[in-house]
Amino acid sequence: MKTIRLREGKERSLLRRHPWIFESAIARGGADAGETVRVESSDGKFLAWAAFSPASRIRARVWSFDEAQRIDAAFFVATCQYAIRARARFDINSDGQRLIHAESDGLPGLIVDRYGDTLVAQFLSAGAERWKSVLCDALLAETGLDRLYERSDASSRALEGLPEVTGWLRGEGPTELVLREHDWRLAINIATGHKTGFYLDQRDSRRKFADYTRRLRFGRVLNCFCYTGGFTVAALQAGAVHVTSIDSSAPALQQAAANLALNGLDGARATWLDADVNASLRRFGDEGQRFDAIILDPPKFAPTVAHAERAARAYKDINRLAFKILEPGGVLFTYSCSGGISADLFHKIVASAGTDAGVDGFISERLGGAPDHPMTICFPEGEYLKGLVVMRK
Ligand code: SAH
Predict the structure, then answer these.
(1) Mean pLDDT throughout 222-242?
(2) Are 217 and 337 contained in the same domain?
(3) Confidence band of 209 (pLDDT split at 50, 70, 90)
(4) Residue 248 alpha carbon to ligand 1 centre in Å
(5) Residue 135 covered by a domain
(6) H or E segment at 204?
(7) Atom of ligand 1 lying closest to residue 247 CA
(8) How many domains would you assign to the chain?
(9) Which ligand 1 atom is at minimum distance from the Cα of 252?
(10) 174, 209, 226: which is the final residue of a domain?
């Protein structure tokens, strides 16, 4: 077994059970991509078993902090089993569920989503890549399914020195599927959709938006960064009079329009705009268009803290523009899915956007990702998605 020895004082985060070992923390030692290494403190004490990743700044990711644990097929079977069974304790009203949420489920670099009877996985670290075959078998055995599609085409693979790959890893079947979530159905494409096909993490926010629509009887709704129209369907089904939805992806908009039909909703109640959100918000402002409710669910502007400053300006811009076209008494659902923007910073950004727009509001909810995208006590980075519901005064 190969060993990596840390520099003095660099064991602290591992003693708190944080699973990342940065390149700069290592005094000596190395291994092949994905190989299991024993991690020791500067004075030779055991700290963890980890997967080595020679190309990444996160040079190793921990599998276990237990010296007696062997990192073998049985370990991965047990870890997948635990994560999947834990989903039964979460409140998930959908047949689309995240089964494995990487570090939060003890499997750094592995994302697995279940869409009905199909699994879709992303192997995003050298360690997950090395154990791919064992992980596939474990996932199928625990779920009793026989189809697993790989979507390892995320840009983060490059940081681990891995090429992008997609396709069926086990079994075969349709890549166009229909998902049942809360009270609606949504068509997704696991081969061409974003991430593994869909944004499962916003499931309960879509329901929350439907609840607000019903209670406050929204008339005109604006759904910015609508993707395949999840919030649009939720709003229309809950009785919103008209929803305008914006996205810069034409295939996503096509899918979105089809999703209205799938739910028996009248297409005349929706307007789809293939456009840039920032430019559209400015145009609406200039034209004097106003909305009773606005959703802002942009892509990740700040993947890490290093991007936070520029991202903060971008978040502030869209929030300021949205506040300006929100009717008094209207409601803004605003989100950041950037790991580099903390909940506290996001709150400050939205507050200063409101001030600049000359708008005050009640913060009626703080939102996060759905429970099958858990964060854990030891891995605060698991809190990537945060949202605020602001009721304009
Ligand atoms: N709210 C969606 C998920 C949004 S993901 C849901 O519930 O499923 C972010 C979306 O923003 C993606 O669909 C992407 O195509 C779109 N996007 C990214 N940059 C954009 C821009 N500048 N203008 C409009 N859409 C953009």
Answers:
(1) 98
(2) yes
(3) very high
(4) 7
(5) yes
(6) helix 203-216
(7) 25
(8) 3
(9) 13
(10) 174
Hunting for tokens 């903390």 — which residue is that? 342
Structural domain range at position 31: 2-64
The arithmetic mean of pLDDT across residues 90-111, rounded, is: 98
Please give the single-letter amino acid code of residue 212.
Answer: Y
Two structure tokens written together for 314: 């971008």
Q: Which residues contact 103 (CB under 8 A, 6 or more apart)?
A: 19, 61, 376, 379, 381, 382
Task: Report the separation in Å between the CA atom of 254 and the middle of ligand 1, taken as the mean of its atom positions.
Answer: 14
Indicate the pLDDT class of residue 24, thresholds 50, 70 and 90.
very high
Task: Examine the domain organization and report whether 48 and 28 are in the same domain.
Answer: yes
251 lines ligand 1 (CB under 6 A): no
Q: Which amino acid is at 316?
A: K
Residue length of the chain:
393
Residue of the CA atom closest to atom 25 of ligand 1: 247
Indicate if ligand 1 lies below 6 Å from the C-beta of 231. Answer: yes
Nearest-CA residue for ligand 1 atom 16 is: 225
Report pLDDT digits (tens) over 25-75. Answer: 999 999 999 999 999 999 999 999 999 999 999 999 999 999 999 999 999
Boundary residue ending a domain (141, 174, 207): 174
Percentage of the chain surpassing pLDDT 70?
Answer: 100
